[in-house]
Amino acid sequence: MPDIVWFLIRRLFATLLVLLALSLAVYLIFYALPADPARLACGKPCTPDLLARARHFMQLDQSVVQQYLHFLQGIVTGRTFGEGSAAVHCDAPCFGYSFPLARPVTTLILDRLPITASIAIGAAVLWLPFGVSLGIGAALRRGKLFDRLAVGFALIGIASPSFLVGLLAILVFGFWLNMVPVNGYVPFTENPVDWAWHLVTPWLVLAGLQAASYIRLSRSQMLEEMNLDHVTTARAKGAGERRVVFVHGIRGVLVPIVTIFGLDLGGLLGGAILTEKVFSMQGLGELLISGVGQLDVAVVVGVTLFSAFLVILANLVVDILHGVLDPRVTRG
Questions:
Q1: pLDDT, tens only, 201-219
Q2: What is the CATH T-level fold of the domain 109-331, as seen in this structure?
């Protein structure tokens, strides 16, 4: 069997084990909190009889092990809370049921995911080429004005809090200049132009801040690559500088860039919390914050696990791309 196939099998198996261990850890941590979801759903007055009935309906009167097994079963086959006409069914994959919102957590996640995905993917399309090209350009012009400006921009971006930059962008471009919307979200299916117009400020703010780390990484990596032996040999054989840069240099730069990009994008897809809060967008980050504020444990557990799943999935994709960029990885 080819090395790449064994490599994929090992990575998939390791990913499943990590997801299983993570789900157990998250479930135990959040359900060990003092907050009692049954008491919160019981209402007032909450008599001992009503509390017992609420705990039975929510399946909280079982042991922690049984609850966790029911949770895993819900992800695979779905889950039903209660009995008879009052029963509530949650289709697979069921990450829990929010009784305060009277909706499955999976439905809540899917409703909010397009907003978060629009912010994260749109910003990623901007920050990746901008940050990498600026960093490589700075490395090729080391010590010159372009290099100093790029490094200065990177230092400012890394040191700037995202919420502060977002608020300043809203103040200047939204209120003073009245150029862009200051909050809200328009679905792409309703009006693609308004969708992009409402997202342009979050995209630019997030892309500018994220690009800062890519400028520093790609610059330092390019400087290192251009001093390696195989690059020196290529130059000695008469290869042009353009070929040396694009064939030998950039390939080495892409390996760490792919790693950080996959993890950054996976993390943002799980909820761009500060960006969503500043620009008043109801994405996964806002859902998580509201779940914490309402002590809605099912929402907190579901969103946390879903976000972790996206990060681990991004890590798996990064491992696969590493195998393509550097075949030695698949033989490791």
A1: 999 999 999 999 999 999 9
A2: MetI-like fold (1.10.3720)
